[in-house]
Write a structure and sequence with these properties.
With about 625 residues, this protein is α/β, with parallel strands linked by helices. The chain contains 21 helices and 21 strands. A nine-stranded mixed β-sheet has the order 14-15-13-16-17-10-19-20-21, sandwiched between helices. The chain has a seven-stranded parallel β-sheet with strand order 5-6-4-7-8-3-9, with helices on both faces. A three-stranded antiparallel β-sheet has the order 12-11-18, with helices on one face. Helix 7 (about 185-195) runs parallel beside helix 8, helix 18 (about 535-545) crosses helix 19 (about 570-590) and helix 19 (about 570-590) crosses helix 20. The protein is globular, with a radius of gyration of 27 Å.
Length: about 625
């Protein structure tokens, strides 16, 4: 369209913006979210197409909705954004900041968010180039494939010796932190030549070595924009990371956070069922003195490490039994989800190969083994496993973060690494939820105290549906938070280990005893319930037997009967809704009636179409109705 056909004034003035804001009631005209500073005064009929800059042709939109409205003809080919991704995009666009840290739980979709942000900045002309920095070679390829699906061409194969990516073929490149650290001035030149957005994926790796942080500062100081991302909050105890803000306690300060609890509530991630196994371990120390202890005992650090080493040593036989339990669980799950897969996270290559041989003996199928020293072959192995229906993948660290294999549903945590960040990243490999899936992820682990504490923290987030609140957890537990902490190793020789025995399950903020778990498993087999019903069966067993709830160790005491006195209405309403959810699941199991039918009858009793519309009084009516129904059939 000719320039002279456009309104001579493009931007709405302050008076007109006030009118548009008031007319919209302070909410986005498209999605209804509250308008934050930085909201957009949009032309309904595009100014570039002759639309006048007049309040009659204006509307108040959040930044995300305005940009989505404007790019419908521009060819975004990626997936639709989830709610949190739209919120994060809104927060970024509203801030107009050069540096932005997003902390989102593993499996939530950080990659899609980052690529959509890159797309918006490219189409708006803010940047002309995108550089993604990742921890491993495999992730370079994965990012490039995801970017291609979204319409952005990234070069994952460029080496420092090749110079910068070919600008005629690519909109940017995918690099590793080690690659950047090797030749930071080359990448500084690239940012200086063209306006660049740098996406620092799993940015805490920039603090792994002091030289890496210095290289990131040098290479990307001239970048137009920098987006840092991580799956969990991190600290600056080792090496502060450039472009990241820290609080007085040394903890990173995110500009947008999306925690595991909320991801469970939103249906983005699966819940996790932790199964811990105990056993008596015997080992000989450097002084030739033989020691023994149970994994679940409260041990000194050196003894705890020695006991765990003994359990994980392939020669003691303990791991073979644990792998057998895990494979039984996977076999049961595959009757419902035929392509469900399992992952064993090992500590070193020799152990990984030994575990793979054990699984071959147990299943008759050779597992896929991926080790970092295998280079491109390891990347190809992960990709092939992701597309196959094979049962087991055995890896050393390589699948601890960032790798997307959605069919992983059963895990074995067989590594000496006990840091919070690694544990959360490992758990994140199993929580990605597919549409209409109901089963939880299952993780088998030695029953040592540090791992039980970490599992309890994950479960607390789910139970309370909170965003990540690591500061509170550290205060409550006095947990050591050094992300690079390792346990001191001593010269010791594993001697023997008893049979692994089930110690406890942790799920939904509650601990379940071996008796409760085994009784629920017998019911599972007797009535041919799907394996996804196990958590509900355990809870039903406890309720029927009148067993007091065993809370995980970091939980506060259960409320007394009059605890609702003074409870805010919004919290009380949530408590009632949660109680009704549990009752509906139990009814479905004991009555044999499908869950949607049970829910429909309860809603009918409450006089509502859906539970979200029910008042506190109506929810109490539903609870009474459900209890009466249970009493009639039991």
């Amino acid at each position: 369209m000719a320039e002279n056909s456009r309104d001579s004034r493009r931007a709405f003035n302050s008076r007109e913006r006030v009118a548009l804001f008031l007319a919209a009631g302070g909410n986005c005209r498209t999605c209804g979210t509250s308008l934050l500073p930085g909201w957009h005064a949009d032309h309904k009929a595009a100014w570039s197409h002759g639309g006048p800059t007049d309040v009659i042709n204006g509307q108040a939109l959040c930044p995300a909705c305005n940009l989505i409205k404007g790019d419908r003809s521009m060819g975004w080919t990626g997936p639709n954004l989830r709610g949190w991704q739209r919120e994060a995009l809104d927060a970024y666009l509203g801030s107009n900041a050069n540096d932005f840290l997003t902390v989102a739980t593993p499996g939530a979709g950080k990659t899609t968010f980052a690529l959509r942000l890159a797309y918006e900045l490219l189409t708006a002309g803010v940047i002309a180039r995108v550089v993604v920095v990742v921890p491993t070679e495999h992730l370079k390829v994965q990012w490039a494939e995801n970017a291609h699906a979204c319409g952005i061409a990234l070069d994952p194969s460029t080496k420092n010796a090749d110079g910068l990516e070919n600008f005629s073929d690519y909109r940017g490149a995918a690099l590793t932190y080690a690659q950047v650290a090797s030749t930071p001035d080359l990448h500084r030149l690239g940012c200086g030549q063209r306006a660049t957005l740098v996406i620092l994926d799993e940015v805490h790796h920039a603090g792994d070595e002091k030289a890496w942080g210095a290289a990131v500062q040098t290479a990307f100081g001239p970048a137009r924009r920098r987006l840092a991302m991580s799956g969990t909050p991190f600290r600056s105890d080792n090496n502060p990371i450039p472009f990241v803000k820290y609080g007085p306690d040394g903890k990173s300060q995110a500009d947008y956070s999306y925690g595991y609890g909320r991801a469970i509530r939103d249906g983005v991630c699966r819940q996790v069922d932790f199964h811990f196994y105990d056993g008596e371990m015997k080992w000989q120390g450097s002084d030739h003195v033989t020691s023994s202890a149970n994994l679940s005992a409260e041990l000194q650090r050196s003894d705890a490490s020695a006991a765990l080493d003994t359990a994980l040593d392939p020669g003691t036989g303990w791991m073979r039994k644990l792998l057998g339990h895990a494979d039984n669980a996977l076999r049961d799950l595959r009757t419902e989800v035929p392509n469900a897969g399992g992952l064993v996270i090992a500590y070193r290559g020799s152990q990984a190969r030994a575990y793979a041989n054990m699984l071959y003996e147990i299943t008759g199928e050779k597992p896929t083994v991926v080790l970092s020293e295998d280079g491109p072959e390891a990347n190809a192995g992960i990709a092939a496993f992701a597309e196959s229906t094979a049962r087991w993948l055995v890896a050393v660290r390589m699948v601890s973060e960032g790798v997307d294999v959605p069919r992983l549903a059963v895990g074995v945590y067989a590594t000496q690494t006990k840091t919070e960040m690694f544990f959360r990243q490992a758990v994140g490999r199993f929580v990605r939820r597919k549409k209409d899936e109901e089963h939880p992820a299952l993780i088998f682990a030695p029953a040592i105290a540090p791992l039980r504490v970490l599992a309890a923290q994950v479960e607390k987030e789910i139970q309370h549906e909170l965003k990540l609140e690591e500061e509170e957890f550290e205060k409550e537990q006095g947990e050591e938070s050094n992300g690079q902490q390792t346990f001191e190793l001593f010269a010791r020789v594993p001697i023997a280990a008893s049979e692994p025995t089930f110690d406890r399950a942790i799920h939904g903020g509650e601990e379940y005893t071996p008796e409760e778990h085994e009784y629920a498993q017998r019911m599972l087999q007797q009535y041919a319930f799907p394996s996804s019903a196990l958590p509900s069966l355990r809870q039903m067993v406890r309720e029927q037997l009148g067993v007091p709830q065993a809370r995980v160790t970091i939980e506060t005491p259960a409320p007394t009967k009059d605890a609702n006195a003074g409870t805010p209405a919004f919290r009380l309403r949530k408590l009632k809704r949660d109680e009704l959810s549990r009752l509906a699941r139990r009814l479905s199991i004991v009555s044999g009636v499908e869950h949607p039918v049970v829910q429909g009858k309860i809603n009918e009793a409450m006089g509502v179409r859906k539970r979200a519309d029910a008042s506190i009084k109506q929810l109490e009516t539903g609870v009474t109705f459900a209890h009466r129904w249970i009493k009639e059939i039991t």
